[in-house]
Design a protein that fits this description.
With 250 residues, the chain is an alpha+beta fold. The protein is built from nine helices and seven strands; from the N terminus they run αααααααβαββββββα. The chain is globular, with a radius of gyration of 23 Å.
Length: 250
Amino acid sequence: MTTPSDDQILLVHAYMDGELDPAHALDVERRIAADPALAGERDRVQALRTALRELPRERVPASLRARVEAIAGVRKRAEHPSWRALAASVALAAIVGSGSTYLTLGPQRGDPVADAVVAGHIRALMAPQAFDVASSDRHTVKPWFNGRIPEAPRVVDLSGDGFPLAGGRLDVVARVPVATLVYRHRQHVVSLTEVPARGRADAAPVRRTNDGYNLVGWTEHGVAYWAVSDLGATELDDFAQKFRTVPADQ
């Protein structure tokens, strides 16, 4: 068994941290599957993460709490300090002391799938083109996914409704390759990602925003659909409605 190079190890770590684009993530997955040394590195990273999560949480010593209170200027009420006020003061000190740390570790988003879908959309907009296969013909786009994902995606033609198909690409959600269809509406790009959701009940469309982008998500026949775009919310709702109402065999 060969020893992985530093670059290979860094790639594995970037893969585990979810920092790679879909194409590079799939490439690293193939390397890991073919190289026991890289698989071992992946397992070591995962084991370390698990161990850190399982470490016992120590109570904050009273002496340390008092020192932090003194630095932050938190006043005690009676004999018991306000831990909420203390936490707020510590957070404020952290923001002032390190803005970049706050931006990195700041407010957490609620849905990792929605986050991954938006991240894929943003990466696609930054790329030379937003798709891996360019075609307005659904009979070209749909077969392109054969062998790349377990099940063929649903691809519909919405050109008559003002949303012409532009192509398709592979994205990665929770380390699983998924199909994303790319539609256009005037100068806007709409990404429609289809995530396997076996066992989940059908769910009506729900609108939300993420990183300044509008999303509409719904579940139908064991697939979670996520439409994301910088289109206005009403127009994106219209896209989702038109996609949903096209017969399944078209």
